[in-house]
């Protein structure tokens, strides 16, 4: 008989290990940023939100917003504390029904410490009660809240959420939404998705909106003011709701002439991109002084200035194209912005072709020929432009030129298969430029690294051999301006900068 001898120290250690429950492993704070190199403090680590329930009350006369936000989430690590991105004044926070301590830090961080640490994988419900005047709050030197004569609007990119609800403010954490807003009678509250109901009592009306497909935080929008609302359906049966400020003045007719074609444009885009991905559609034009439009999910925001020169269906095409490219498939990191803007601009080129005002090829030739080699336009790399150039005109125009170069390289059959297949492959998720290149190579059967490098990542104008190889601007001389160019360029008001126009 052989007896195994265990040293006393080893035995003690074994007993000690067995005595420590797994739950006693150390918990740690969630990261104050999600890890995006362009915006290190945007988003947060340690949890994933699946749903936002926002119950709000807004007073247009004073710009006062009062709210209770309920976040349904899941911990992705053992958490001792976690952050939300938020700017208004918080009165109380509860985590899983129990009061939690909280404090603010940095530009927009709300740090929450639950009474009981959270285990990885555990469901988490966070309730935040708050109030404040959104227009009085600034982060990074600007505000994303637009004060209007009759109310206020939340719409900006890459951030707007922090001015009206606490969130994990990065496209990587998409969620569904219920937004319920109480406003004075005679005032309307516009948001994303479908209008579930309205009810009035004691001089106040509650508007209840629902977005039942995953939505990035910057694509959530709120507009309160006095609007005329029109409703209808697309040929495909999608309900359309458009809203126009009652104070658009000379821009009113052109705005309506543009937005009322939303259903037609969405049905047309579905022929290129596949079925429209949501159960609601529309747009709104508040009385703001901003210059840009924004693809807020299911209901894009349009500035009145978009229609200063008359109707502009091209900008409607651009924002609706984003419903597939940018909204249904969202970027992984903000450097992947080309997939959003290059393809939305290319949709405008396809619309130009549809309207007989210049083909996509003619527009690509014109972009290539109209910027000489020493133009700073070519120093911006659409595939990774940097935060300072994220919304530079080159991301749009050179970005669309890269799309045409790809089309010419792989042929129409593979190209249009990719246009429709990409939103289906990554539906309601996130993807990168690298993912797109791999997918294009998979569908086309061609190596595309050199083409992507030349047209998206080199800070210089592709030379004539590369242009000829991509069938762009044969010789690059004597290229005339397509008839649609001025109308497309009119959408470039999205690049005007001002207090509200940091990024778009």
From TrEMBL:
It catalyses: Release of an N-terminal amino acid, Xaa-|-Yaa- from a peptide, amide or arylamide. Xaa is preferably Ala, but may be most amino acids including Pro (slow action). When a terminal hydrophobic residue is followed by a prolyl residue, the two may be released as an intact Xaa-Pro dipeptide. The keyword Metal-binding applies. One of its GO terms (molecular function) is aminopeptidase activity. InterPro entries: Aminopeptidase_N-like_N, Aminopeptidase_N-like_N_sf, Peptidase_M1, Peptidase_M1_aminopeptidases, Peptidase_M1_dom, Peptidase_M4/M1_CTD_sf. Pfam families: Peptidase_M1, Peptidase_M1_N. Its cofactor is Zn(2+). SUPFAM superfamilies: Leukotriene A4 hydrolase N-terminal domain, Metalloproteases ('zincins'), catalytic domain. It comes from the Bacteria. Keywords: Aminopeptidase, Hydrolase, Metal-binding, Metalloprotease, Protease, Signal, Zinc. Residues 311-455 form the Peptidase M1 membrane alanine aminopeptidase domain. Residues 1-24 form the signal peptide. Its EC number is 3.4.11.2. Belongs to the peptidase M1 family. This is Aminopeptidase N. It comes from Streptomyces iakyrus.
